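Q: Please design a sequence for this.
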């Protein structure tokens, strides 16, 4: 296994007490017209701020939504993953992008709850300004020696955001190792950046795009196609890759998928991606309960996790 050299990163150049105001330059819908979900690609212009040149892909930026909560306190910041490569959106160091999903929920009393920050961001127009903090995140990064490794990237929903920039960066660095992107979403209309990843899949023999549409396709046994089911369904490609000693694994998106992936890795005997402690070591992965998964099964040094 080559040494994993993570880059030094800048953290919290701007804090909630001292945020920076930056304009939005682009806000476009990513989900298809008929989707019940609304995900938008939002780009900010950070020129003239200390963020320029200091935000790495894999990190997040913070947004402070205006207004106060029901207790009369300022809303807290929300984090959003950087979706642009480290050199900036379209190669411009002053542009940083993210991928925002509107949080919309029906409450027990039938009222709709609209998430504060995601809907604030999604409503903004180019020219509108936001209060930004960050960057944050020091581990969910590509190594400096990135071309030494193969990558298996697991994403659900907006968890795909960091991989957009990471994959751009890896392919531009002429990596010869393999990159697999396993993406999960409910419907075909929720595939994010699909045309982009499909074209990369066509162009690069070492890039493999594997969408998993949970509410349309079913597996032969009738179970849902969740991202972790690829460990069985795509075993021909993934077995040799995951058993190779220079493969790194990344997990980003829904909190719930983390334990699903850990259980699947353990069932496949891929414990090198996990740090399994007692009492979980004394049980079969199928016998692990939520407590085992929460406390005693952790990512190993070659597994990178960002779930929310
Ligand atoms: P909130 O208003 O915070 O509501 C969130 C949930 O709280 C609601 O769904 C609801 O269940 C509950 N809730 C809160 N208040 C009430 C109330 N009064 N009544 C009923 N229910 C309530 N998101 C993205 O879209 N893209 C990203 O790239 C992204 N990256 C992230 C990276 C990190 C490291 C982390 C930690 C999070 C990331 N997120 C991302 C999630 C993001 O930070 C926000 O949590 C998300 O956008 C929801 O925020 P919100 O203000 O819209 O919703
Ligand atoms: P489903 O909702 O059919 O159960 P989005 O963020 O766009 O809603 O997408 C999240 C995707 O992750 C959906 O396809 C969802 O499937 C799927 N999902 C939900 N729970 C898990 C889990 N525990 N492991 C893996 N994928 C999951």
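A: Design:
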């Amino acid at each position: 296994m080559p040494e994993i050299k993570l880059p030094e990163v800048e953290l919290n150049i701007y804090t909630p007490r001292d945020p920076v105001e930056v304009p939005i330059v682009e806000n476009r819908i990513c989900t298809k017209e008929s989707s019940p979900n609304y995900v938008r690609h939002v780009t900010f212009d950070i020129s003239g701020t200390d963020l320029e040149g200091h935000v790495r892909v894999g990190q997040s930026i913070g947004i402070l939504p205006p207004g106060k909560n029901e207790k009369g306190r300022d809303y807290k910041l929300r984090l959003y993953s950087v979706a642009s490569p480290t050199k900036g959106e379209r190669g411009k160091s002053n542009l940083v992008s993210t991928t925002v999903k509107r949080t919309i929920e029906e409450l027990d009393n039938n009222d709709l709850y609209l998430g504060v920050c995601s809907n604030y961001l999604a409503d903004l127009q180019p020219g509108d300004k936001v209060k930004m903090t960050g960057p944050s995140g020091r581990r969910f990064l590509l190594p400096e020696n990135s071309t030494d490794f193969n990558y298996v990237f697991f994403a659900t929903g907006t968890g795909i955001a960091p991989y957009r920039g990471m994959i751009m960066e890896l392919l531009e660095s002429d990596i010869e190792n393999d990159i697999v992107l396993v993406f999960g979403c409910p419907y075909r209309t929720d595939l994010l950046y699909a045309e982009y990843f499909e074209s990369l899949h066509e162009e690069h023999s070492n890039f493999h795009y594997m969408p998993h549409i949970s509410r349309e396709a079913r597996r032969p046994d009738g179970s849902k196609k969740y991202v972790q089911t690829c460990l069985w369904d795509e075993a021909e490609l993934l077995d040799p890759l995951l058993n190779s000693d220079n493969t790194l694994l990344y997990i980003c998106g829904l909190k719930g998928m983390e334990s699903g992936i850990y259980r699947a890795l353990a069932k496949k005997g891929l414990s090198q991606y996990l740090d399994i402690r007692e009492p979980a070591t004394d049980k079969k992965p199928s016998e692990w309960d939520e407590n085992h998964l929460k406390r005693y099964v952790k990512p190993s040094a070659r597994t990178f996790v960002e779930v929310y």
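Q: Thanks. Anything notable?
A: The pocket of adenosine-2'-5'-diphosphate (ligand 2) is lined by residues 37, 156-157, 184-186, 190, 214-215, 226-228, 254, 256-257, 260 (CB under 6 Å). The two ends are 29 Å apart (CA to CA).
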